[in-house]
Design brief:
Helix content is 52%, strand content 8%. The protein is globular, with a radius of gyration of 20 Å. Strands 3-2-1-4-5-6 form a six-stranded parallel β-sheet, with helices on both faces. With 382 residues, the protein is an alpha/beta fold.
Length: 382
């Protein structure tokens, strides 16, 4: 683990300052592209190059696992849906497949802890165990199982980068995984069970109250400090959360953008942040999930979502939707003409903005730094 973490360096400030200066020279009023300007500056910092190259090809990795807490009745969906959805992913029939095809994103599916036997499927087989234990009565995972799942995610990220992928997107699948997510988010942010527990796939009021009680009881049972990321993953799981945390750390190690999906990815990112705050310099929030805990997680991570469409499907759908927004931000920085090259005289407002260029660079770095310093059907929100 220490080898993983020591390889993660903060974003490149020199590249970010150069990107800020370039933004001020482009043929538009300073700040007129809003969040896209800051995003392009952050991408320059991640890759250490200004202007950055569009990070293509991209891949969304769907980590799948089951949860022992399902036996407590926190989801109306049978656990077998997890395996059924893996077959759907493998055959190209899920929402994430449709979105990925539209946006030229490849899809990888990983069994890291599905309770059922899915060996016949053409996916990545890396099962640590067949689902977690029930987090409401004991620890969901052993320390060795957590380490194994984190390693799977970390090493897969490295393999994908080695295969030529320039942008990693997160996806997930697992019935009852929002229960584990709620416990993780509460642990890392200090929020209450009531604040972070949501309806997942659309549970009724009675089930939501029961689910919230399960999360609250689990938090009291385990009482893991926010500084103990591996301990939290052991207490609550899931195997997909641990693998996603490793995947995020792996992307940061290789200095490629990692686009986060919804609440499951948010919970995993909080674990990654606790392990290595600088890893957040390489993360982009693809969207804001309808799950209440996700907004709390994003605030703690210091990340602004690119899309807010009340999505709660998971699978990586929000991350895939955000990918073309990220590429547009980079293309604007890279391909737009400058005032000089277009023969346009910059007005007084542009000159005044140029005087504040250093402050703008500090602001962009501060956004990344804040993230570093802060310590469906049935999918993301199952």
């Amino acid at each position: 683990m220490e080898e993983y973490l020591t390889g993660i360096e903060p974003a490149d400030e020199t590249a970010m300052r150069a990107a800020t200066e370039r933004q001020l020279s482009l043929t538009k009023p300073a700040g007129s592209l809003g969040v896209l300007e800051e995003l392009s500056i952050r991408i320059a910092g991640m890759t250490g190059v200004c202007p950055p190259v569009v990070p293509a090809p991209a891949v969304v990795t769907v980590f799948a696992a089951d949860h022992g807490v399902h036996t407590q009745g926190v989801s109306p969906w049978p656990q077998e849906v997890t395996a059924a959805m893996l077959a759907n992913f493998a055959s190209g029939g899920a929402a994430v497949n449709a979105f990925a095809a539209n946006n030229r994103v490849d899809v990888r599916v990983v069994d890291v802890g599905v309770a059922s036997d899915v060996e016949a499927l053409d996916i990545v087989h890396a099962k640590v165990r067949a689902g977690t234990r029930d987090l409401s009565v004991g620890k969901a995972l052993t320390p060795d199982e957590v380490q194994a799942a984190v390693t799977i995610g970390f090493e897969l990220a490295g393999k994908l980068v080695g295969d030529g992928y320039k942008c990693l997107l997160t996806g997930d699948m697992g019935i009852a995984n929002t229960t584990a997510s709620a416990a993780l988010i509460a642990t890392f942010t200090g929020a209450t069970a009531a604040e972070v527990t949501g309806r997942g796939t659309g549970i009724d009021d009675a089930t939501l109250a029961h689910k919230t009680e399960i999360v609250a009881a689990a938090l009291a049972l385990h009482d893991v400090p926010a500084s103990d990321a591996l301990g939290a993953l052991a207490a609550y799981g899931g195997l997909e959360h641990a693998a996603l945390a490793g995947y995020i750390l792996g992307g940061a190690t290789h200095k490629v953008p990692v686009i986060l999906d919804g609440v499951i990815a948010g919970a995993a990112a909080l674990a990654a942040q606790a392990l290595r705050p600088a890893a957040m310099d390489y993360c982009v929030a693809g969207h804001r999930s309808a799950e209440p805990g996700h907004a709390i997680a994003l605030k703690s991570l210091g990340l602004q979502p690119l899309v807010d469409l009340d999505l709660r499907l998971g699978e990586g759908t929000g991350a895939v939707l955000a990918y073309p927004i990220l590429t547009c931000a980079i293309r604007a920085l890279t391909e737009m003409a400058t005032f000089e090259s277009a023969g346009i005289a910059a007005g007084e407002d542009a000159s005044a903005a140029a005087d504040g260029g250093a402050a703008s660079a500090d602001s962009a770095q501060g956004s990344a730094g804040a993230a570093s310093a802060s310590a469906t059907s049935a999918g993301d929100d199952a």
